Amino acid sequence: MSSAATHAADPDHLWSVDEHLEDILSTVRPLEPIELQLLDAQGCVLVEDVMVPVSLPPFDNSSMDGYAVRVADVAGASEEFPAALEVVGDVAAGAAELVRVGPGQAARIMTGAPLPPGAEAVVPVEWTDGGLGEGPVSGMRARSLAPEGAEGHVRVHRPAEARAHVRAKGSDVRAGDRALEAGTILGPPQIALLAAIGRGTVRVRPRPRVVVLSTGSELVQPGEELATGQIYDSNSFALTAAARDAGAIAYRVGAVADDAETLRSTIEDQLIRADLLVTTGGVSVGAYDVVKEALSSVGDEDEAGAGVEFRKLAMQPGKPQGFGSIGPDHTPLLALPGNPVSSYVSFELFVRPAIRALMGLTDVHRAPVRATLRADKALRSPEGRRQFLRGAYTDGEVTPVGGSGSHLIAALAQADALIVVPEETESVEPGTEVEVVLLG
Hints:
The protein has helices spanning 3-8, 17-27, 71-74, 188-196, 235-245, 260-270, 291-295, 340-359, 409-414; strands spanning 14-15, 34-37, 45-46, 50-51, 61-62, 66-69, 83-91, 105-109, 121-124, 153-156, 166-167, 178-180, 201-205, 209-215, 219-220, 231-232, 249-256, 276-280, 307-313, 315-316, 320-326, 331-336, 368-373, 379-380, 386-394, 397-400, 417-421, 427-428, 433-438. The protein has 440 residues and is of the alpha/beta class. The strands form eight sheets. It has a seven-stranded mixed sheet with strand order 1-19-21-22-18-14-17, sandwiched between helices. The two termini are 38 Å apart. The model has no long low-confidence stretch (mean pLDDT 90).
C-alpha cells in the first residue's frame, strides 16, 4: 500500500507539506504533445529538439547603410585624400540580382542587403560624402527622391579592413546546429528564432487549462454593492492571475453559493474545459463548508481512482486541503482553504507545481534562497507546523510584512517572498539566516 493510501485510511493523520506535494506530483501527468502554430505555442514547452535547417544569416550581408568596396581601393583614404570610387548601383535588402564591384568601384548598400560579388567590406555612409562631392554626410537620401545617388562617384574618407561591417553567413547559427532543446519554454525570443529558421509550427505540450472557482454565499463580484455580511470575492481573481503567471490558460468562474448541488453542477459543467480544477473555500469543518459534500459525488464517482480526499496538513496557514481527481477523464482537482492568505500560499506550494508538471517541466519549484531575517523581535511558530510568513526581500535580507493572520490581504500585496519556518523551529531570532521563497 502506498504512503498516500496508508494516510488516507487514517482520517486523523496530519500530512506534511512534502507528503501532500509528493502525492500531487505523483498523480499529475504532463499533457499530451500537440503541433501548434508559432504564436499559439507561446508559453508552451518544446517536446523535441529543434535543429537548424538553414544558416543564419543565410548569406554574407551588410550591418550598415553605406558602400560595398574592395579593401585595396580604400587603403590610406582620409578626409584630406579621399578615395574616389565609381558607384555602379544599389544593393537593397532582398535584392536577388547583384551588381559586381570591380577595381575602383563601389555599390551603395543597405543594412541587411547581400554583400555583392567582388566587394570585401562595407564602409558606413558617414565615412563618405554620399556622392555629393562635399564633406562627410550623416545619411543617405531616399532613392525615390534622388535615384541618381546610385550612380556617379563617391569619396570615401576612411579605410576599411577586410570583412568590416559584414555579417558572415552562419555567424548566428549554422545549418545542422541545435536551435532549441526539448524542455524549453517558448517566449518571444524563442518564437523569433523558430520563425527565422523557417519553422511555421512546432511540437509542444499545450498550456494547461485551469478553472478557478470560489465558494461562499457571502461573496460578491467586485463592482457590485455590498450588503450586510458580504465581502468581495478576491480569491478567484488572485488564483486566476497566479495560474496565468505560472503559465496556464486560466478561467475564472463566478463565486458559487454554499449549496452542494449548485457547486456540484457548476464543477461538472467546467470539466469540459479543464485540465486542472482549483476551488477555494468550503474545505474546513464548518456546517456550511459544502465543498466536501459536493465533491463526494461529482462526476463519475464510480470509476476506479476517482474522488477527492480532504486532509489536514502540518502547515500554517493552509491546514485544510483537498486533492483528487474527478470526472470520466480523472481531471485533477485541488481544493484550497478560503482565507485569502491561506489560499494564495497553498497555490504557491501545491497548485503552481501541478501546473508546471502538466506543462511537462522537470523543475516545477521556485528556487529557495537564504536570507538574513531583519525584524524587531523573534518570529514565533507553532511546534510541528511548517509556517509560511509574508516577507519583503532585498539584497539578501528579508523583513516580515504584516502579521500571521490568514486574512491579511493588504500585507500579502506588499510581500514578494515567503519566509519558511521549519516544523521543528518555534522561534527565529533577528539576524538568523532563514529560507525564503521568492514570489514573482
